[in-house]
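**Sequence with structure:**
===
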Amino acid sequence: MSQDLLVPNISPSPKQAKFLSSDAYETFFGGAAGPGKSAALCAEAVTSCLEDPGHHTYIFRKTIPELKQSIVPEIKKQCAAYLDHMPYNSQDRRFNFPNGSYIQLAYCDNPGDYFRYQSAEIHTLLFDELTHFTQDEYEYLKTRVRSVEPRLLRVMSASNPGNVGHGWVKSYFIDIAQEGTIYTDPGTGLTRMFIPAVIDDHPIESFRIQYRKTLESIPDPDLRKALLNGDWSIFAGQVYTEWRRNIHVINKLPIELQDCHRFIGLDSGYNDPTSIHWIAEAPKKDGITHYYVYRELYGNGKRPEEWALILARHIQLEPVDILLMPHDTFDNLGGTRPIVDQFKDIFNKLGLQVRIDRSAPATHTAKINRQSLIHDMLAIQEDGLPKMQVMSNCVNLIRTLPMLPYSTTRVEEID
């Protein structure tokens, strides 16, 4: 069979071509619906297998039905002229090439499914709809990208905004560098790049015209904006749609801390992060009270008394009015002393007089009330500013708050 015949049946658009020719180790092609993301991924899969005998390419979708509906037809479409020479094994979900290469169609439907691929040797790892995956799944599967022979190894993905992975994908690919430029991770030395795309980047004009009408007819304004414009600041299912980084994040406090009431809010964890934030309540002005989140501590793997000592040292330098702790830190669980008592022991030993209050329990009503309060705090007031603004050094709050989605099982609650 002539190698000249084995060319994917696709004429890429400029954006698709830029994606396919990326020099980054990890490349993300995403944004609006309709620029031909799946087609580009499949073209990469076919090309990798043709150009490198014995190449192992894995394409991931979240479920097997999604693979059957989108990936299988697209590969068959691109390779229609020579499909007899690269038969598809539907039982193994694999396209086998005569040169020993193959395209494996893979999935991660349930937690822990990624361990199915523990022994896999992957040379090109592809994710279609990356935001459907958790970062743990993505990071683990990247560890399977390896070869004892010299090969071009890379990870390439595509997706729209939204879904469970929206937050981590945005922070990992989009927030780190200017669009279309290669970012080098200072810790690993590996490179990654985000290539944005919208419906106008699709190579077929008739498709662009028809599909734009479909997207413009979406009644949900957030979903319409995300899929039509590829807007990563808003996504369908986002709880705090009021959030705008250019409005809610500030680089300098507009008030003097000594003129404010100051509070600390703490959410405790060990494996999950402990999150601690300082909030300043400014004097009321023109009938409006503004709040400023101006410092954070964030991390895991520390015992309560370790956090108490860290916090006490901060309070020694800058007193606060109230420390607010979760209701369950006041409980005697499993015969151990309440966490709040461990904090009090440290504070008393250092001579700190700190008022510690208990937050409301995590009932449905309390959760909804807290969410309503934060909606109100983020809303723009008569003076043109939101009630609450966040200092730019509070990077984890800025990262996580706007990415919180609604629960898919408990109506109105955050997931």
About this structure: The radius of gyration is 26 Å. The chain has a mean pLDDT of 87. Residues 27 and 156 are 5 Å apart (CA to CA).
